[in-house]
Amino acid sequence: MIHIFAHYGGTLLYGLGQTLLCSLIALVFSLIIGTFFALLEESPNKVARGVARVYIEVFRNIPLLVITMFFYVVIPLYVIKVNGFTAGTIGLTLYTSAFIAETVRAGIQSVDPGQMEGARSNGLTYWQSMRYIVLPQAFRYVIPPLGNQFVNLVKNSSTLAFVGGFDLMYQGNAIASSSLETMAAYSAVGVLYLIITMPISYYMRYLEKRLA
Amino acid sequence: MLNNFIAAYSPDNLRYLFGGLGITILVSVASIIGSFIIGAILGVIRYVKIKYLSALVGLVIDIIRNLPLILILFFIYFGLPNLGVKPEVIPAAILAMTIFESAMLAEIVRSGIQAVDPGQMEGARANGLTYWQALRYIVLPQAIVKMIPAIVSQFISLVKDTSLATIILLPEMLYRSQIIYGQNTNYIIPMFLAIAVLYFVVCYALSVLARYLEKRQA
After folding, report:
1. Distance from C-alpha of A136 to C-alpha of B45, rounded to nearest angstrom
2. Could you say which of A2, A66, B15, B53 is the most buried, measured as most Cβ atoms within 10 Å of its Cβ?
3. What count of other Cβ atoms lies within 10 Å of the Cβ of residue A80?
4. Do B70 and A70 touch (CB under 8 A)?
5. What are the domain boundaries of chain A?
6. CA quadruple B120, B122, B127, B132: dihedral positive or negative?
7. Nearest neighbour of B160 by CB, restricted to A57, A63, A186
8. Rounded to whole angstroms, how far apart are CA atoms B144 and B111?
9. For the ABC transmembrane type-1 domain, which residue ranges apply (chain B) (predicted)?
10. How far is A124 from chain B (nearest CA, A)?
């Protein structure tokens, strides 16, 4: 395994960079989209709730790889050419946003309804109360699950390997087939994934305990 | 456009695609059974805190949980031949899924046991049962009921994750759809629609079941 790092260190680090880049972009956008749909689901409007429900259920119940392949295969055919990295990141964002929407919604629900009532009776509109009173409190509960979602994102970003996204998994696979030392190459890839995911998992477990 | 759909959904193609769904379900069910058994054993070892062993099991579980499933698939299918073992595709997929899911289920089992009121164990011990008898007859049966919704949710992920085994050429639904639209690019949209609907129906039905079980318990 050591000589894999020695020979292919640059390639692996480049892959790790792509993996992190894709995960971070997907985290930011899925947080925005997920929060948007969580707010729709909690809104008093029936149609908005229906739209949010459909969005969340669709993206939660279709495999990530199918969503990613859709953007890699179908979109270039009819709309615009996308490379593997972009298709993979879009797929990852949409898939994760459905899970984040559920997390944020649970966070909103865990805030005492008295907070909303108090804000409303002090003259704030529904959206003002949501924005300045409820959401900031909800996000405190949401941080540990979001950290776990980021770990899932890093792991799930390995689907980029299917669409030529040049991520860590893709590079590892290329190294495995060119060096023929599959076990050593995959072990090196595994170590790099663990360096990212393990510390976050442990830190989130610690945060969860402290919040509880 | 409509003609493409009619041609794409020919009886032969549909039979081929549903055969893929069969393999998806076969691999998922075999893996969930295997990983429930292994996960239960590992979860109990984690819970009872046997010196060194529990910590070691905990570390292994954490390592597996923090790796991508695709990497585990590669380890089994492309890595093992490096050590002189060459598994077939379906057993390789089941083995990789079982290893990954066992780690997930071990955590579900452990938190299920921890969710049982400690008074149950104390009561059983006070009535003269040994630690293992109390665990086996009093605590575990109650814990299993508590973990069922989480296990069903985990099974949904498992069904979705079998699509990753296309990469080792497991002939499941996604793989077969690619074979079909590989023959004719007009079939791409009909095929994506078909597999998206099939996955959705299976997973959504399971998620309704999980929610129902959760409500009944609360």
Report:
1. 40
2. A66
3. 7
4. no
5. 2-211
6. positive
7. A63
8. 10
9. 21-210
10. 35
CATH code, B47 = 1.10.3720.10
Contact state of B192 with A77 under an 8 Å Cβ cutoff: no
Chain B residues inside the 8 Å CB shell of A60 = 203, 207
Distance from the Cα of A186 to chain B's closest Cα (Å) equals: 7
Residue A132: partners with Cβ closer than 8 Å, 6 or more residues away: A119, A124
| Residue from the list B78, B166, B195 with its beta carbon closest to the beta carbon of A176 | B78
Question: Which residues have C-beta within 8 Å of that of residue B176, sequence separation ≥ 6?
Answer: B16, B17, B19, B20
Q: Residue for token digits 């899911």?
A: B101
DSSP-based three-state secondary structure for B9? coil
What are the pLDDT digits (tens) for A130-159? 999 999 999 888 888 899 999 999 999 999
Structural domain for B162, as ranges: 2-217
Residues B181, B195 contacting (CB under 8 angstroms): no
B158 touching A, CB under 8 A?
no
Instruction: Tell me which chain B residues have a C-beta less than 8 angstroms from the C-beta of A159.
Output: 70, 164
- What CATH number has the domain spanning A2-211? 1.10.3720.10
Residue in A58, A173, A189 nearest the CB of B200? A58
Domain count, chain B: 1
Terminal C-alpha separation, chain A = 41
ipTM, two decimals, is 0.91
